[in-house]
Amino acid sequence: MCLAIPMQVIETREFSARCEAKGIEREVSLFMLQHETVVTGDFVMVHLGYATQKVSAEDAAQAWALYDQMLAADPR
Questions:
Q1: Distance separating alpha carbons of residues 19 and 22, to the nearest angstrom
Q2: Which residues, at least 6 apart from 27, have a Cβ–Cβ distance to it below 8 Å?
Q3: How much is the pTM?
Q4: How far apart are CA 50 and CA 18, in angstroms?
Q5: Domain layout of the chain by residue ranges
Q6: Distant-in-sequence contacts of 57-65, Cβ < 8 A, 24+ apart
Q7: Quick one: CATH architecture of 5-73?
Q8: What does the pLDDT read at residue 76?
């Protein structure tokens, strides 16, 4: 199963962005979103270092709520 992680854009440069989620920052490729304008403050879904789509802040929060529930249910 593959998961994309919602992250907030904190800085953009041509085809890349610095993104943050839960205190973790990553360099993310925006190459797959060439047809969209991505600006600081936007939320994107990130899979394997690539932003695959823009999402609303509400959708990002809902995804994290679901991920948090899955992590809380993990018996490890």
A1: 10
A2: 16, 17, 18, 19, 49
A3: 0.90
A4: 11
A5: 5-73
A6: 59/6, 60/6, 60/7, 60/8, 63/5, 63/6, 64/6, 64/21, 64/22
A7: Roll (2.30)
A8: 75
What pLDDT, on the 0 to 100 scale, is given for residue 1?
Answer: 62
Q: Which residue has the tokens 């695959």?
A: 52
Contacting residues for 4 by C-beta, under 8 A, at least 6 apart: 45, 46, 47, 52, 53
Q: Are 30 and 15 in contact (CB under 8 A)?
A: yes
Closest CA to 53 of 42, 44, 61, 63: 44
For each successive 10 residues of the chain (76 residues), what is the average pLDDT? 90 96 97 96 97 97 93 82
Find where tokens 């973790």 sit: 24
Radius of gyration of the chain (CA): 13
In whole angstroms, give the CA distance from residue 6 to residue 4: 7
